[in-house]
Specification:
This protein is α/β, with parallel strands linked by helices and 263 residues long. It has 2 domains: 25-186, 3-Layer(aba) Sandwich (Rossmann fold), CATH 3.40.50; 191-262, Orthogonal Bundle (Helicase, Ruva Protein, domain 3), CATH 1.10.8. It has 11 helices and 5 strands; from the N terminus they run αβαβααβαβααβαααα. It has helices spanning 25-39, 54-64, 82-92, 101-119, 135-144, 164-168, 175-180, 192-205, 215-225, 229-245, 253-262, and strands spanning 43-47, 70-76, 122-128, 155-161, 183-186. It has a 5-stranded parallel beta sheet, sandwiched between helices. Helix 5 (135-144) links the parallel strand 3 (122-128) and strand 4 (155-161). Helix 3 packs across helix 4. The two termini are 21 Å apart. 32% of the residues are buried. The structure holds adenosine-5'-triphosphate (ATP) and magnesium ion.
C-alpha cells in the first residue's frame, strides 16, 4: 500500500515522533500554558475529549523540559490510589516505601522538600486519566500539594483527564482542590482549516509527492471527526486502505462514507 501511494512511511499513526507533530492553535496554546505552569510550580488541570491530544501535549512538554533543571514523573493509571501514588513517587527516586501509610506520606513530604531545597531541580508530576479517579484519590490531591502548612509548593502537579473531570471537581467536598488550580486548559478539536492542514502535514511527513484526499473527502472527515485527531487518524487510515483495495489513487468522499458506516 505504501508503494501504491508512493509513501515513505505509514501516516496517521500514534507512533508519530514528537518533532513531527502538527502544531494546531490548541496544541500551541496547551504547550505555552503547560510550560508556564511548570516553570512556576503551579497546579494545572488539562482537560479534553478522548483523542483530542492531551497526552500528546504532555509528550511535547516533557520533550522540551531540560533534564538539567527538571525532573518529571508521568503516572498513567486510571485506578490510581493515594497509596499507589506515593509509592510511585518514592520508588522513582529509589526510596523503599514504608509499611504504614502515614510514614509513606512523611517520606513523600521530606523527599519533595529535599529535592526543592538541595537538588535545585524542579519536580513535575503529571497524572493522566484522572477522570476515572475515586473520590479519595481526588481528595488526596490536597495533601499531595500541601507543604509547610500549605505555605509553599515544591512541585508542579499536572492533572490530565476528560472534561467530566472538571465537573467532578465542582462538588462541594472538592471545592478546596478546585480553588487551588492555578492553570486550567480545555483542549478543543481542530478547526476545518486545521483538519485540512493536519492531513496535508501527515502526508508530507511520509513524503507523498501529491494530494491523496479529495476536498469532499476532507470535508466529510472533518464533519465526522469534529477535528479530533485520533478520529481523523482512524478515518484516514481506513479510507486509504479502502481506496487501495479498490485500486483508487485518490481517496474520495465515497471511501470516507463507507468507512464511517463500518465504524
Ligand atoms: N498535534 C498532533 N499531531 C499529530 N498527531 C496528533 C496530534 N495530536 C494528537 N495526535 C494523534 O492523536 C492521537 C490521540 O492523541 P492523544 O493520545 O494525545 O489524545 P488524548 O486526549 O490523550 O486521548 P485520551 O483521552 O483517549 O487519552 C495520538 O495518538 C496522535 O496520533
Ligand atoms: Mg491520553
Amino acid at each position: 500500500m505504501l508503494d501504491f501511494f508512493e509513501m515513505k512511511g505509514v501516516p496517521f499513526t500514534r507512533e508519530i515522533s514528537s518533532k513531527h507533530l502538527y502544531a494546531s492553535a490548541c496544541q500551541k496554546e496547551a504547550a505555552a500554558r503547560l510550560e508556564y505552569a511548570v516553570k512556576n510550580r503551579q497546579f494545572c488541570l488539562l482537560t479534553g475529549e478522548a483523542g483530542m491530544g492531551k497526552s500528546t501535549a504532555i509528550r511535547t512538554l516533557v520533550h522540551q523540559l531540560d533534564p538539567i533543571h527538571f525532573h518529571y514523573l508521568y503516572i498513567c493509571d486510571s485506578s490510581l490510589t493515594p497509596k499507589l501514588f506515593y509509592r510511585e513517587v518514592l520508588q522513582n527516586f529509589g526510596i523503599q516505601p514504608a509499611f504504614r501509610s502515614t510514614d509513606v506520606k512523611r517520606q513523600y513530604q521530606s523527599l519533595l522538600l529535599d529535592i526543592y531545597e538541595n537538588e535545585k531541580k524542579m519536580l513535575v508530576i503529571i497524572i493522566d486519566e484522572a477522570h476515572h479517579f475515586s473520590d479519595s484519590m481526588l481528595q488526596e490531591l490536597r495533601f499531595i500539594l500541601n507543604f509547610k502548612e500549605d505555605s509553599m509548593s515544591p512541585l508542579s502537579l499536572i492533572v490530565v483527564g476528560q472534561p467530566s473531570l472538571r465537573n467532578l471537581l465542582k462538588v462541594k467536598q472538592l471545592e478546596a482542590i478546585d480553588q487551588r488550580i492555578q492553570m486550567r486548559y480545555q483542549m478543543s478539536g481542530l478547526t476545518e482549516e486545521e483538519t485540512h492542514a493536519y492531513i496535508r502535514h501527515q502526508l508530507k511527513m511520509v513524503e507523498t509527492p501529491h494530494e491523496i484526499f479529495s476536498e469532499e473527502a476532507i470535508q466529510a472527515i472533518y464533519n465526522f471527526s469534529q477535528g479530533i485527531p485520533r478520529k481523523i487518524n482512524t478515518l484516514c487510515s481506513q479510507s486509504l486502505l479502502d481506496a487501495f483495495i479498490q485500486g483508487n489513487k485518490i481517496v474520495g468522499e465515497s471511501h470516507i462514507h463507507r468507512v464511517i458506516n463500518e465504524l
